């Protein structure tokens, strides 16, 4: 059974669903949960407009703190032991999928749970997918949780 589960959060509905699935698995297996929020401050090109990189970093970290506060509260409510962290990519050439892989290895996790928007076709190609990039290099099982909007859209044939 799993002893440590890493759940990747980004504040989206899909990642909130991933948190609750991770909590369910952690309760069933009596595993410890490690919730992580990744900050990629280089994601905005300076050519997209003028911005203060330090101010952007602060805003991204604050978003992470909010998501992780909710994760800690959920862990307490469900009686799941765990911890949280904000991790920052190492530079503009680094990406969240690689950062997540390093975290999983460092934490010795046996399972990764993450949300996915369930994009496909040209939308996936244009926007890319952290989940897809991570799954391609993962050394441990990965549980992907679609956002409820995506799941409903698929069942209705949209």
The count of β-strands is 5
Q: Assess the beta-strand content as a share of residues.
A: 15-25%
Number of helices: 6
Poorly predicted ranges: 150-158
Strand order, largest beta sheet: 3-2-1-4-5
Question: What does this 3D model show about the protein?
Answer:
The chain is α/β, with parallel strands linked by helices. The chain has a single domain (4-155), classed as HUPs (Rossmann fold, 3-Layer(aba) Sandwich). Helix content is 49%, strand content 20%. The protein contains 6 helices and 5 strands; from the N terminus they run βαβαβαβααβα. It is globular and about 45 Å long. It starts with a strand and ends with a helix. The relative contact order is 0.21.
Key features?
single chain; 158 residues; alpha/beta; Rossmann fold; globular; disordered C terminus
How does the SSE layout of this entry go?
Elements: E1 4-9, H1 13-29, E2 32-39, H2 53-78, E3 82-88, H3 96-107, E4 111-116, H4 121-127, H5 130-137, E5 142-146, H6 148-155
Parallel strand pairs: 1-2, 1-4, 2-3, 4-5
